[in-house]
Write a sequence for this structure.
């Protein structure tokens, strides 16, 4: 009688190649993700990417028409993290927009924030 190998993740018996380690793509991905999380540097990258995606989502929801001015407090109430952004754009007038991918913001006087969408003319030269 032929002995079947067991999946290294879930323990399910597997048919097929003798050197097969995982029963499915899900199990293979799961083990890969576990290894990534175990690495401290990778964990930091994942944490920062999570913050950036959350910031982008907050900006997108706060500016459905593409250009909006809101109170800074509104972003803070949604746990927006002003310390994390993907890049900056400096205007000819000296204003600095902070971007989370394709959504940016400019801190204005009186605790207000201008939210904008990335535009082609903002491409670095």
């Amino acid at each position: 009688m032929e002995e079947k190998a067991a999946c290294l993740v879930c323990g399910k018996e597997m048919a097929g190649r003798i050197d097969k380690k995982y029963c499915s793509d899900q199990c293979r991905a799961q083990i890969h993700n576990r290894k990534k999380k175990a690495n401290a540097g990778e964990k930091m990258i994942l944490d920062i990417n999570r913050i950036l995606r959350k910031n982008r989502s907050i900006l997108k929801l706060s500016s459905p028409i593409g250009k909006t001015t809101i109170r800074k407090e509104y972003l803070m109430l949604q746990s927006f993290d002003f310390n994390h952004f993907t890049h900056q754009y400096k205007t000819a007038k000296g204003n600095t927009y902070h971007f989370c991918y394709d959504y940016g913001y400019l801190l204005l006087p009186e605790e207000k924030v201008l939210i904008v969408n990335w535009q082609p003319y903002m491409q670095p030269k």
About this structure: The beta strands are 67-71, 87-90, 96-100, 103-108, 112-117. The chain has a mean pLDDT of 89.
